[in-house]
Design brief:
Order of helices and strands: EHEHHEHHEHHEEEEE
Radius of gyration: 16 Å
Number of helices: 7
Strand content: 15-25%
Oligomer: single chain
Number of strands: 9
Strand order of the largest sheet: 2-1-3-4-5
């Protein structure tokens, strides 16, 4: 159970964004306190109201939204987080995070967050295999970010992706979507003793 734990979900502009509503719902069923931040592009695939209905928290999109409680939102959420997951993570947002660009609510929160961070690349196979994207993932991994490698599946362009997930993720929550854009099974396990990785199992602890 994730009672008393805060999970911040970052949703970017990918067709797989709609699947994160199911992930948010499963986290809530595990009694996690879930907050969702979306990029503006993500709102083209799923409306913020869907996440607000599920989480009972305002879904943050605009860094300069005037309709909020008086605190610095991106810093406040970053401090509350026990874990932050960016899923789906587009090539655009991965590139921003790798190079310290913080120009919206999601990327500024990610920059301010000291909690364990999971990044779930989700895109067309050709984009994923691009050396620039792979270099950006290596940069993020070198900063201690956990990269959840994508699974294979039917892409939006109707091709089947050749990228296969290399790990099994174990913990309190298992999320196994019927994938359309190379999005893997996701598991979150938050305990009280730090982040550790053993064999092919990732356990998120804090």
């Amino acid at each position: 159970m994730l009672k008393g734990k805060t999970v911040v979900l970052g949703v970017t502009g990918s067709i797989a964004a709609y699947k994160i509503a199911s992930l948010a719902s499963m986290l809530i069923k595990q009694h996690a306190d879930v907050h969702v931040i979306m990029t503006q592009n993500a709102t083209n695939f799923i409306h913020p109201t869907a996440f607000e209905t599920l989480t009972r928290h305002k879904c943050l999109v605009d860094t300069f939204d005037r309709n909020f409680q008086f605190n610095v939102q991106h810093v406040s959420l970053a401090q509350q987080a026990d874990v932050m997951m960016i899923a789906p993570a587009s090539a655009n947002v991965i590139g921003k995070l790798a190079h310290g660009i913080a120009d919206d609510m999601l990327t500024t929160t990610a920059m301010a967050c000291k909690a364990p961070m999971l990044i779930v690349p989700t895109m067309n196979t050709n984009m994923y295999e691009n050396p620039i994207l792979q270099d950006n993932l290596k940069v993020l991994a070198s900063y201690g970010k956990e990269i959840i490698e994508p699974a294979s599946g039917m892409l939006a362009c109707k091709l089947v992706a050749s990228v296969i997930s290399s790990g099994v993720y174990a913990g309190f929550l298992v999320y196994t979507p019927v994938i359309s854009i190379t999005m893997p099974a996701i598991v979150i396990d938050i305990t009280d003793s730090g982040l550790r990785k053993c064999n092919s199992i990732i356990i998120i602890n804090k």
